[in-house]
Description:
0% strand
Amino acid sequence: MPHAPSPQDVRKPTDADRFIGRQVRQARREVGMTQEALSEKLGLTFQQVQKYEAGRSRLSAGRLRDVAIALSKPINYFYEPFPAAPQVRDLERARIGLLKREAKKLVDSLERADDLEAAIQVLTALGPSHR
């Protein structure tokens, strides 16, 4: 049975925290602001900004809002596109492999040229966003 995380584990930065930290650094650089200038706007030490950017400290929701305002960025800038966790990518790859095998079986089962042409038309109608 899984155990509840300890208070120390809950406070440890995660991959998401490190990603958000990198986004903070990128946003700060995009607007040409130094860590010192950002820290002054936020009322923090520049060392704390360094920790956020390096992913060594977690940003609270309120602090991230302050960062977004200071850097004139929408809040979703710091979240998107967050890469999927390895387990999610592995599941998606497995799902795609299964679906491709099923689609191949269906195409291989078509014996008539008319049926194959109809299948091609249906797939083409889905458009590039579905391919």
